[in-house]
Amino acid sequence: MAYVIVFVVLGLLLAMGVPIYISLLLASFFGVMAFTDISPEILIQRSFAGIDKFVIMSLPFFILGANAMDVGGLSKRIIALCRALFGHIFGGLAVTTQSAATLFGALSGSGPATVVAIGRILFPELARSGYPVKWASGLIVQAGSVSLLIPPSISLLLFASVTNLSVSDMFFGGLGAGLVLTFFIMVYIYIYARRHGIRGEKRASFDEIVKAFKDSIWSLFVPVIIIGGIFSGIFTPTEAAAVSAVYAILIGAFVYKEITVKKLFKLCLQSAKTTASVMILIAASSGFSWLLTITQFPAVIADFLTTYFHNSVTFLLFLNILLLLMGMVLEPTLALVIVSPLILPTAVSLGIDPVHLGVVICLNLAIGMFTPPFGLNIFVGQSITRLEMTEAWKGLVPFIIVSILALMLVTYYPPISLFFPGMLN
């Protein structure tokens, strides 16, 4: 029962507003002191071991690259290209928003960064173009969630880290699910626009499309470097992260000429702050997971799951419900690093591929990013839309429903997650 008391302590600390990483460390320290005769120094060692991994080295580079792409003007050129390609169809501006978010997800790997980069440019235009403000807000907030699935997703990277799976396999597994989610949202946008008579803009001429493509060509090379480099075996994920970050800085500074020395210093400082916050959360979560392990909590979870769920269909249904509920109240990284090691053994014993499991977990947490009451993207989007929270929630309902439909397809049709990793291998 030691783990029950530890969870109670953690819940109380979080309810008191204590930062997540401090709550995890304090709950872990309490558990070690109260229920074991182990020196608390071991907790520090286990926490450090959680970030002392080669794969984690790619994290600061992906964060640096994402900030460089935003500051360096790569994101707005991606938006211009998507607008030239899709702006003329029904709901063209909304389709542009979703497609640009997917492409920017392939540049940044960060949901909140995508919401900011896409939202501050397109939300005012969506509102001016006749889209209901609440609906436009919902579109912007959910659009960033696809970044949790499109490589170089930080969530996929963390899942690979905590479960010792191949980062390349996870990246390409998430790619299939991310494309399916984007497709579902774009179909819904088109149907919504036709029903409400929201026509597209004037069709871009061939010359305008060519110009938009030329302007964005340097931006489009970023996902080519990351995905193509890993797929071809030229780079490891860590090397691809470093190369893409340096590339983004050079393009922003010398081609688009939007990164000055002053801006470079600021984006490096911001990247360092973001990296530190993520790293300390991973470290704290690793120490907490270690404590749960020595108190036999994983064994209890495994016994429960194998007792009540005898096949993969019911297990995955239970997992989806659990993760959707967790996503409403927990930060995705926290939910991922706690849940993944606990359920992986049971999932494998039921014949579920670990890569498919990771994609299902990340898709659930992607939906949680824009699910009330505590979805992170909601708060990020609110800083752009300036809507009251209850108004913002109303605009999210149809996107949550459509995303859950995509989740069901990805969950029960594993080839979506496993096709690209199969090609890679």
* End-to-end C-alpha gap: 43 Å
Rg, Cα atoms, Å:
21 Å
Strand content: under 5%
Oligomer: single chain
Number of distinct helices? 20
Q: Count of DSSP E strands? A: 0
Mean pLDDT: 84
Structural class: mainly alpha
Q: How would you briefly describe this protein structure?
A:
This protein is an all-alpha fold and 425 residues long. It is built from 20 helices and no strands. It has one domain.
List keywords for this structure.
425 residues; globular; 20 helices
Walk me through the structure.
- This protein has 425 residues and is mainly α.
- The protein has helices at residues 2-15, 20-35, 41-51, 58-71, 74-86, 92-108, 111-128, 133-143, 154-163, 167-195, 206-232, 237-255, 261-294, 297-308, 312-329, 332-349, 354-368, 376-385, 389-412, 415-424.
- Helix 8 crosses helix 19 and helix 13 (261-294) crosses helix 16.
- The longest helix has 34 residues, at 261-294.
- 52% of the residues are buried.
- The mean pLDDT is 84.
